[in-house]
């Protein structure tokens, strides 16, 4: 999940909460509407711009970015092999990224109807209803953001035993 994307969406929800409370502070905010596509376009452009800046700064610092499937080798010096080419250095940083585990429909019937938290950032419009499955901070943030922006939202938490 893109942490910058999440922060932008969290800030969007905070603004929605402020607007909700404006009347309590004497502000009349009749007719305020939220446009999901606008924030999605602006968020995506912001993240692209920041990624470009980060990559430019890394290149200016004479740091090589090597993308591909890598593995450590048995060489005596610290060495990794990426797509058939070996790299040796005193310090090797591997930024693996992450991929969510998606169960099959045979494991959980209907699992293919869902999306991962990454899919949240691909949504072209705010869903009328949403169900978030999980108990981690990302799940709690997602349900809070979606609910605050107007999606009728539920949070499901799996528990193996009753406490």
UniProtKB/TrEMBL annotation:
Gene name of the encoded protein: Gsr
Lineage of the organism: Eukaryota, Metazoa, Chordata, Craniata, Vertebrata
InterPro entries, alphabetized: FAD/NAD-bd_sf, FAD/NAD-binding_dom, GSHR/TRXR-like
The record's keywords, sorted A to Z, are: Disulfide bond, Oxidoreductase, Redox-active center
- Say if the entry is tagged with keyword Disulfide bond: yes
User: What is this protein's record name?
Assistant: GSHR protein
Q: Report the GO terms under cellular component.
A: cytosol; mitochondrion
* Pfam families, A to Z: Pyr_redox_2
Q: Nucleus: is it a keyword of this entry?
A: no
Q: Which SUPFAM superfamilies match?
A: FAD/NAD(P)-binding domain (SSF51905)
Task: List required co-factors.
Answer: FAD
Q: Which organism is it from?
A: Grantiella picta
